[in-house]
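Forwarding these from the shared drive since the link keeps breaking.
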Amino acid sequence: MKKTIYSLRGAALLAMVAAMPVVTACSDDDGEGGGAGEAARLTVVVAEGDGTSPLDEGLRLGMFMTGGDGASVVSAVMTAGAGGQLAVADAITAAMQDGMTLAAFTPADLWTAANYGQAVQFSVQTDQSAEAAYSASDLMMSPLTPVSGGKAALVMEHKMAKVSVHVTDVTGLYDLAQASMDMPSRLTTVDADLVQGTVTTVEGVTADITCHSPGNSPYRASGQAVVAPGPVAAGAVLTSLAVDGQTFTYTLPEGAEWQGGKEYVYSMRLTSEGLVTYDSYVTDWKDNGEDLSGDAEKQ
């Protein structure tokens, strides 16, 4: 059956902004009257840790709504405001009826009206030192969510893996505030299927990733990178730390299988013998904001 696709973009979407109802990313209250009632009809949050978090301010996400027969598709691109609030296109909320399904995703331009229903290829940024590039590497998708009782609650899930490395200098010889971290030869690319809600890592596509490190101090440095899920071999270099004209590396003693939606945390000391790990663990992906210190030691 041929699909009819409506895309809310450009001038047409801009002209609707003034009339758009505001939808909160986390409210479940029905509210009373226009805006509050519309806000309760559609919610969008992100699965993190043991619960959910509101959308980050400034996050752009795409959304598709399909009819019960799958024959028509409405699309829109939205930006989260303060507190995760979204200005939602009238075409989405006005057309919501039981039996329809919705899906949200970011980056917002990954799927368009032209390729909805197709698997698309996504790659993380190789230089994630800037916040924008680090955030753009975070592929998120919600499952297809049915409209029930005129409402839909979408929960977007992180589909890539996050790796965090915390280093404490115990020698007193280095200024880690000036340090930079790389994660060499990491998997970068997946085939993503919004309809199925799955990602499949493309084997053999690797790159050196420059880590995001916004909060280093003279004695402690932390770096994070978003990478494609997949195996990491024993003996592979986990991280390379460059500081004061020297480079230190740490290799994994055992292999691992990094999974989407998980955070892999490694805590190390910079000693006279180089980088020595003292703790590592796996947890659900959590947004640490600018605080990447984790359980790193403090002087």
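-- next protein --
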Amino acid sequence: MSLSIVSKHPIGKRPPKAPVPVNQDDAHALGRWWDGLATDAEKDRVLLLLDRLHAFSSWLACGCTGESVNPPLLAVTRRTGADGIGLSLRRLMDRAAHSADCRFAFEQRERHGVRHEASEGVGEASRPDFLFQPATGLGASNESESTRNSADEHTNRSHPLARRMFWLLNEAGVNTWPRPYDGSDRDALLRLAKEVELAHGLFLRDVLYCHPLAWRQGWMGAGFRKCMTHGLKPQVWWLCEIEHASQKTGVVRLAGAKEDTVIAGKLSVFGGDDSAVRYPMLMCAVVGKLPDDSVQVLQAYAHPIQALDWWLPVDSNLERDAVDDLLEVIRKLARERVELQMLKPLFAWNETGARPDFVVTRRAEPSDSLVVETMGSDDLEYRERKARTVERLRKYPLFEDERARDPAGARAKLRNAVDHWAHGGR
């Protein structure tokens, strides 16, 4: 498969300059990088290639289809990640599709070696693909290529919809306290979505709905029409609070609703139906308009949140309690003119690659951090994962919040630990 550098150009027109083939070594490094297998030297080679594309306003044309007039294209995009590369690639979904056997037909894989487990690194906060498949040649499939599940993505954070939901919450700052915006979390996400361009003239705000009434009152028609004008399947993204969910029966109860809503496709709930941590939850769903004009929820993922008015993802009721205690001590210290901030990382945190439960920092000096690990189960495997996380974070002051083993004393111990650290202790 060959790759070429082409100048940016409008749909239906040829590029102003002849394509320049990418040399074999660069193409090989790029392929390994896309597959999550690149060495440090190959990453450096890829970074130089992306820098050239970015500097000269160019795209990569893929030769997988053999089509030279309208080849599949890849564009440079900015991202933040633990490997330090500030540029990445995304597929141009409003151009020709890659062949089915092309590596670029699928999303870029996570960094090799990153594990998707609770309290360990869960990948980088790079922008996921929010575009859907083109509207032609889809057969009978109702699922978006970019949201299709792999075998192990049914009830955990590596679910494709979970990654998209967490990215939005992370970019908007929902996972911090004090929150960096006025108004509701819903408004913050919609403001963010106005800045996320998916294709020429198509923004995430055009296809994102963040209210239960979007379903109950049929607000999604404009998004369906917008997709169709860009040659995409009539599908939209939907985030909303829910008060009940059942994977077994495939239904959810929207916040404030009296009746259940049927999920026509697959519903995945964090931890499954028997998980102890439950409601409220935030649901991320793909909603589609079918050829018979019916509207269905094609796929959905639900994750527990702190409260209906705070879309902070939590993995346990113990974490909910820890958040309440952290906010209480942060407010108390604010009255003493000690300004702190709390972060709940949703992706791998800084150079450690770990995802601690909470990070408390001084607002005037964000590099000064206290890590808080809420210890839940006594299960051996769980404790081993926690031990690996703690080892990766050993350079930071760290407090192990043992509220599962000491429910009576945990609250005071956590508050005292934060207070002691804030006043100069270690």
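Residues 80-85, 110-122, 137-146, 148-155 have pLDDT under 50 and may be disordered. The chain is about 25% helix and 25% strand.

- D.
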